[in-house]
What we know:
Elements lengths: L4 H8 L10 E2 H12 L3 H9 L12 E2 L32 H8 L6 E2 L1 H18 L7 H16 L5 E2 H9 L18 H14 L1
Antiparallel strand pairs: 1-2, 3-4
Helix pairs in contact: 2-3, 4-5, 5-6, 5-8, 6-8
Amino acid sequence: RSPCPAINSLANHGYLPRHGQNITLVEFIKGFKDGFNFDRAFTAFSVGLYQPFTSTGSISTLNLNDLDHHDLAGEHDGSLSRNDLYFGDNHSFNKSIWDTVAAHFKNDTISIPTAARARKERFAAAAAINPNFTASETGSMGETALYLTAMRGQNVETKTDFVEVFFREERIPFNEGWRRSNHTTTLGDLGELGMKIAAAT
């Protein structure tokens, strides 16, 4: 698996190959489209960042653990649910870290200001104790924009229980009522949400 709960959720549900090995760009594009209704450009851009670091022997495929490469879209310091590389395991879900983020989510849905506060405090906490901290605010806001969008599904606002399942269990919360959005999410959509998160920070 990878350090990214979105990709792990897609693999755990079979939208990406469950074995996590030798996955092509076409498979990534189809997985994000079928699973979350994210567009081709978003996936091609995100996956393309990792192609130079593939461990498969072919630049046309990736293993999911190739996303462990530090300081790119899927893995960065100040993650909402992973520890920083400086402290060792930057791959696995870290309950203690996520608990500090989730403590902000006191209502049934997560507003942009609430998500922005949770992100800001986690980012600051990580930066304060990691002497090699390298994350950017922009990348951190992108992480928040991604989960808010993916877990909003067909709802007007993102439900807290959907987000909890997504991070803690790395599964898409179908059983809890989540349904895939009918709107195809673009890079522009995520960028616009990222600006709203910045404005609320």
